[in-house]
Amino acid sequence: MATALFGDSVKRTEDPRLITGRGKYVDDIRLTGMTHMAFVRSPYAHANIRSVDTSAAANAPGVLTVFTGADLQEQLGGLPVAWLLPDLKQPPHPPLAYETVRYVGDAVAVVVADTAYQAADAAELVDVDYEILPAIVNAEAATKDGAPQLHSEAENNIAWDWNISGGDYDEAIKDPDVIVIKQRIVNQRLIPNSMETRGVVADFDSGRGNLTLYTSTQIPHFVKLLYSLVTGHPEQKIRVVAPDVGGGFGSKISIYAEEIVCGIVSKQLGRPVKWIESRSEAYIATTHGRDHITDVEIAGKKDGEIVGIKVDVYANIGAYLSTFAPLVPTWLFGLMLGGVYKMPNVVCRVWGVFTNTTPVDAYRGAGRPEATFLLERMVSRFAQEIGRDPIAVRRKNMLASHKNGRAVTTGVMYDSGDYKGNLNKALEIFDYRGFRSEQRAARRAGKLLGVGISTYIEITGAAPSAVASSLGAQAGLWESSNVRVHPTGKITVYTGSSPHGQGHETTLAQLVSSELGVPMEDVEVLHGDTDQGPFGVGTFGSRSLSVGGAALFNSLGKIKAKAHTLAAHLLESDPKFVTFEGGSFAVEDIPDKSMTFQEVAGAAYGAANLPPGMEPGLEEISFFDPTNFTWPFGTHICVVEIDEDTGQVSLVRYVAVDDVGNVLNPMIVDGMVHGGVAQGIGQALTEQAVYTDDGQLLSGSLMDYALPSADMFPMLEVDRTVTPSPVNPLGVKGAGECGTIAASPAVMNAVIDALAHLGVKHMDMPATSEKVWRAIRDAKETQRAARAAARRS
Amino acid sequence: MTVEITVTVNGTAHTATVEPRLLLVHFLRDVLDLTGTHVGCDTSQCGACTVHLNEDAVKSCTVFAVQADGTEVTTIEGLADGESYTPVQQGFWDEHGLQCGFCTPGMIMTAEWLLKQNPDPSEAEIRAGLAGNYCRCTGYQNIVNAIGAAAKAGR
Amino acid sequence: MVTSNFDYFAPTTLDEATSLLSRYRGEAKVLAGGHSLIPMMKLRLAEPTVLVDIGKIDGLSYVREDGDGVAIGSMTTYRELETSSLVKSRYPLLADAASKVADLQVRNRGTIGGSLAHSDPAGDLPAVVLAIGGSVVARTRRSSREISIDRFQVDLLTTALHDNEIITEIKLPALPSGTGTAYSKFHNPASHYAITGVAAVITVSGGTCTEARIAVTGAGDKATRARRTERILKGKELTPAVIRRAASRAAAEVQDTLNDDIFASAEYRTHLTQVHAQRAIEEAAAAAG
């Protein structure tokens, strides 16, 4: 393998182990004396626990111990929240419930046995006597007087009442030329479904008092910190390892009850404890995403000028506050309501509401898809109402291009963007005019064909820590890197970000190779083990390269500087005459005076001849805290065809042109766009979590929750524009979530466009075949009735 | 009740005494320590546990180990010869057909079988052939490309 | 998710298997391909204490000519049906329906006998066999009987099979010349089971429909003949208007047991059943013509 450059599509170094079955996920860990844990979970959405009889379970074959919530109440503490809002209500969140259960899946007891099968058998024998209480699952209904109350701390189940505004919306809509379009939009609850469920192996070493937690997480360092804060276990005696992690999509950015319980039980038992979540368990025990009920209005003039947007949101947060729950539907949502438009007036109010459902936290995009859906759907709706082309309306309102900061109404500063240039490129690839004539012909032939567009912008790369702190973050959101050059010149990198499919081992080695001119195979990238490097933050919110990669870049800069000084000293030259190219230091104009990087590394450790004041060794740490978020943007265009008889929606074409700044590895970025788009399409067409009124999850397995499958998709046409970000030294922006954010509104706008001539103006996601069939039927009824009325008059 | 079974896995015969309810996937993972075969669901949908049973691709979460008594099983660990990969494995690597890698062993085992039945599949046939395998990372695009590339390499 | 414990027997002859079923009558379940039973057991919706695995018995997997008709061994997999040239030429709808069952891994294990014995309300093959007609051969330790397919599906997940019987064979009759067949399915996007599936076997002679067997699955509690639809078709020239009218009655027989779930309301299922009845009848009529 040779050296790699910034911008090369380098094949992944992770893959050889993963394509041969040699990856190491949590469930693959086997420790001597390992025991297996099963959780007993509430089958009711809301109930008081009268008693728990564990005797039958305790006597079942292979069972070592059974603990109830009451048994462990003292040791377990309560699960914390990492983001605060003004006047946030924080009711206690016990890892094991001991008085009241508040959602189906709330854990009440654990059984530990020699084998997983025995633990599962015995868990069925734990007899809990419940006093069933009335439950509530709808966030709006939960705020009404008389609704069942979840927590005494949160009156009317309201955890927060948050707002943000810019401009003066009420004043703007007084203009008689302004029309206001109102719509209620439900952004349905989704279930993340990483292919690997969660799992934990806890291994307490009673001799040293050290606890090792192997856990399928996106945030191993935060798990270490929060475990320590919750249990009092000294932080230096905790090691958290996220081995190969099989996807997360935001559902693994929380500290979970099971992590705490496994650790405590391992300590009590003096043996390793493994818990692996089953898929059915994941449906109720791992956080969900989205779930907003929104009243939105968009205001604009007949000529297409948009003057403002106003939204009121009931954000369903489930039964308890998950770790980042207060952040997702507030800042990550409200800040995005201006989109790529001038949008002079924005008003946003968000109620966070407790309900008897699984807690809601980040899911790919986290707040931004909800905002972007509202905005992009309503801009197209506005265009439809005023009888103008949705692209013309977008163009008219779009922000001008800028390279270094543009303040917008929501109070934030977009870093850089060329929104019209990006739109133009997408339209060129798509051939918009050509499509419109094809669509007219299709309609004449009785086919329902529609095109949808979304021109999105989103916020990635959290964060400037001071800004995040001012918004409520309880921890810094920088990222760390450690570069250790070994005496042979081989390199170990530790990154504080924690991949679960993103390919850090490849891209970060590629960055090292590109910067130092060393071969890729000389670089080992480590991650996800808190004992192997400095404290880190983790992988979420499309931050790994723009924050973690920048931290690595800065470490490499320090390495280069020291090596440069040392090389000049050894080459007996003034450093300013020493060049560094292709992994070699050389003195200008003196061909035979050169040293390889590896030779310099050896000299740094040999320490026989160092410049005065230079310490031996070649190792550097950097913590990078950016000055701003990064703001990727782009244009997605989708074509759908609808089977009028059944309402079934088929994707015909999908064009994605994203701008994520500079691109380190195009192959990996394209792959992220594919996957992100697929998840956005999943939300638009098939996925939905459905609860009964009494809190039973009907979509509680893969038999009942429709994940997108391979045959749903055409080949996605992916391209990009490049507007470098000024806020990090690599000029990169986040790329992990843009596909998801862009896709849902593009698809739904296409569905509505296919039906627009029938008078259809809106439909909530997912556009299931039944919903589309009903919309067509109802629209035709309305048209028939109108024609009949016209004939009569 | 326990039952003695002999299953030939990746060419080696293994005899073990098992509970009848032991699933083949757990036999492979927990008895033989072949952890390349993954469990992604519990309702026979996701396909992460796909192995070959007497040369047929099957979901090993929906087969009891006792049913596999006397059969030959191939798992993901049985495909490559050292670092020499099959065209399907190579295709997944070359075409970036995996991200988190969790669905990958099952995807590859399905793809191997698919190409054995149909060495020159169309894109639509590949997509239809993946109906029993979920991936949450790739949007399937590069998986389809990987299998297409493997078909080409195999011809 | 693990099943509860059970005792397991893997007989190598039918005599042995039927003896075991008699011995453990009421406790034992027959394990064929396992793709209906094992998922139910993992969810602990079924907890048999004895399993009799008939997968080790030779000679239960075949498709062969049987007089004028075709006999299919009960352990024949969906995959074998899908690829059998005999099935493809004699009962194209059976091969087509088999190819639409779940996914290829399931089709490699699931069997026609298991599918019929389980009688899932949304299974594909029960409707197809019902539309073709024929019978199910079931054996006990002492005797064997043929159960007409029209009397086989009794109720939700319930057949005419006794708990000491094993399905050994499915006998399909010869279809008269001038017969066309089709299976039209709208599948559940998550489970791939039929939200509705309509199987049509239509014989046309001299421009007139002389025989029609239409069966519906997915809509109601079991695979059901759409007899009102059949009556409308029989004796008529199959004009678009006749087909439309016949299809509009396709859900009549399942009106009282219509499924209603998060993927399709009862009303939508009725509509889909009509749409797919029309598609199946049109396709079968075209093939017959």
Distance between the termini of chain B: 49 Å
For the secondary structure, the number of strands of chain B is: 5
Oligomeric grouping of the chains: heterotrimer
**How many domains, in number, for the residues of chain C?**
3
What's the average pLDDT of chain B? Answer: 97
Major β-sheet annotation of chain C: 5 strands, antiparallel
Helix run count of chain B: 5
CATH class of the largest domain in chain B: Alpha Beta
CATH class of the largest domain in chain C: Alpha Beta
Secondary structural class of chain C: alpha+beta
Helix coverage percent of chain B? 25-40%
CATH architecture of the largest domain in chain B: Roll
* CATH architecture label name of the largest domain in chain C: 2-Layer Sandwich
Largest sheet of chain B: 5 strands, mixed
SSE string of chain C, helices as H and strands as E: EHEHEEEHHHHHHEEEEEEEEEHHH
Estimate nothing, just give the exact number of structural domains of chain B.
2
The low-confidence parts of chain C are none
Number of extended strands of chain C: 14
Structure described in brief:
By secondary structure, chain A is of the alpha+beta class.
Written overview of the protein:
The complex is a heterotrimer of chains A (793), B (155) and C (289). With 793 residues, chain A is α+β, with helices and mostly antiparallel strands. Chain A folds into three domains: 31-133 and 195-247 and 252-285, Aldehyde Oxidoreductase, domain 3, CATH 3.90.1170.50; 364-462 and 628-783, Aldehyde Oxidoreductase, domain 4, CATH 3.30.365.10; 478-624, Aldehyde oxidase/xanthine dehydrogenase, molybdopterin binding domain (Aldehyde Oxidoreductase, domain 4, 2-Layer Sandwich), CATH 3.30.365. In chain A, 30% of the residues lie in helices and 24% in strands. Chain A has 21 helices and 28 strands. In chain A, the strands form seven sheets. A seven-stranded mixed β-sheet of chain A has the order 3-5-1-12-9-10-11, with helices on both faces. A five-stranded mixed β-sheet of chain A has the order 7-15-14-13-8. Chain A has a four-stranded mixed β-sheet with strand order 18-26-27-28, sandwiched between helices. In chain A, strand 16 and strand 17 (413-414) form a beta hairpin. Chain A is globular, with a radius of gyration of 28 Å. The mean pLDDT of chain A is 97. Chain B is of the alpha+beta class and 155 residues long. Chain B has two domains: 3-78, Roll (Ubiquitin-like (UB roll)), CATH 3.10.20; 87-154, Orthogonal Bundle (DNA polymerase, domain 1). In chain B, a hairpin with a 2-residue loop joins strand 1 and strand 2 (12-18). The mean pLDDT of chain B is 97. In chain C, helix 9 (227-233) packs antiparallel against helix 10 (240-247) and helix 10 (240-247) runs antiparallel to helix 11. Chain C has helices spanning 14-23, 37-42, 78-83, 85-90, 92-99, 104-109, 112-118, 125-132, 227-233, 240-247, 266-288, and strands spanning 7-9, 28-31, 50-53, 63-66, 69-73, 135-139, 144-148, 153-155, 158-159, 166-172, 179-187, 194-205, 208-217, 224-225. Chain C has a five-stranded antiparallel β-sheet with strand order 4-5-10-6-7. Chain C is globular, with a radius of gyration of 19 Å. With 289 residues, chain C is α+β, with helices and mostly antiparallel strands. The mean pLDDT of chain C is 96. Chain C contains eleven helices and 14 strands. The chains are: A alpha+beta (793), B alpha+beta (155), C alpha+beta (289). The interface between A and B is large, with 57 and 58 residues.
